[in-house]
Amino acid sequence: MSTLRSHRLTSLLGIALGVAFGICFLTGLVSHFLQHPPAGIAWPSRPVGFYRFTQGLHVITGLATVPLLGAKLWSVYPRLFQWPPIRSIAHAAERLSVALLVAAALFQVVGGILNVSRWYAPMPFFFTAAHYWVGWLAVGALLVHIGVQLPVVRTALTRPAPEPGSAGLTRRGLLGAVATAAGLITVVTAGQTVRPLSGPALLAPRRPDIGPQGLPINNTADEAGVRTTALDPSYRLTITGPQRRVDLDLAALNALDQHTADLPIACVEGWSATGTWSGVRLRDLVALVGADPDRSTVVVESLEAAGRYRTSTVAAPHVRDPLTLIALRLNGELLHPDHGYPARLIAPNRPGVQQTKWLGTITVREDS
């Protein structure tokens, strides 16, 4: 067994990992409840970049846990195989919590990396739901583990272990190497969220300045099967409200009052980028069909024939926000087909999967 291992080393690594997991869990809850708000709760539309910040922090912190988790498992794995494996009922419960914690942590980190890379073939399940529920399992097992190990951690931190006698890597050096690895991973991936770091973002799957019209995309018009429909000259955007229905072609949409907003696209994979969007305020279209924008909920539907995110619900805080647009232009040009031509939703503080592209219908419902 390496003489570098000690209760103090394990405790320090565990504290760092616990903080990282806590950040990931809380920011993950934000992402989940933004996409799946509890009944009767509408998420606010401001601050504009709140989701961009929390989801970027979620992914950056999750990637930084890779060296932390590896070092933590290295520091304790000999104890995982001590004999006998079960010494009492209490010991069995502790071993079970450790097994659940290790399995859940590996699942979250590996699954998160696959999601950031958009490589879903190894995951025969819906990643978002699995990531959410296993996150609760990981946190529960972590709390049990902290409760069991707290006396050991307190003792280890108040009684520093002596350094290994042989020359070579010290425990402080090992901790420094782990911190450096975590920092390096952050620097070479954070550029997909923090634009000033886009230069050294060598491992970022999405750079914020690469893509049609200078913004990244996850799904092209061809992949969505909408190119022909989207480019059809007979295109109409159908808006149905409590008093009337209107069908607007592109000329009619462009004849309405046009507004411009600088808003980010922020995706669950962690990347984000800001564009200058121009189009019609959603609240103006809601008023056009006889509804009150201040107390209306809107369902937008894409021209896509199928897809988990082809429809999206826009709650009242976003409907009435003047920055919520049905965008027709991006950075001064007509939307590129891959960015949602002929029209798309763009709203503040909203996950990218809910910024529906290739809009076909808008249904307005007044809230009671």
From TrEMBL:
Domain Oxidoreductase molybdopterin-binding: 233-366
Signal peptide, first to last residue: none
Pfam families registered for this protein in UniProt: Oxidored_molyb
Record-linked InterPro entries: Mopterin_OxRdtase_euk, OxRdtase_Mopterin-bd_dom, OxRdtase_Mopterin-bd_sf
UniProt KW keywords: Membrane, Transmembrane, Transmembrane helix
UniProt KW Membrane keyword: yes
Lineage per the UniProt record: Bacteria, Bacillati, Actinomycetota, Actinomycetes, Micromonosporales
Protein name (Swiss-Prot/TrEMBL): Molybdopterin-dependent oxidoreductase
Highest taxon of the lineage: Bacteria
Membrane spanning residue stretches: 12-35, 55-77, 98-121, 133-153, 174-194
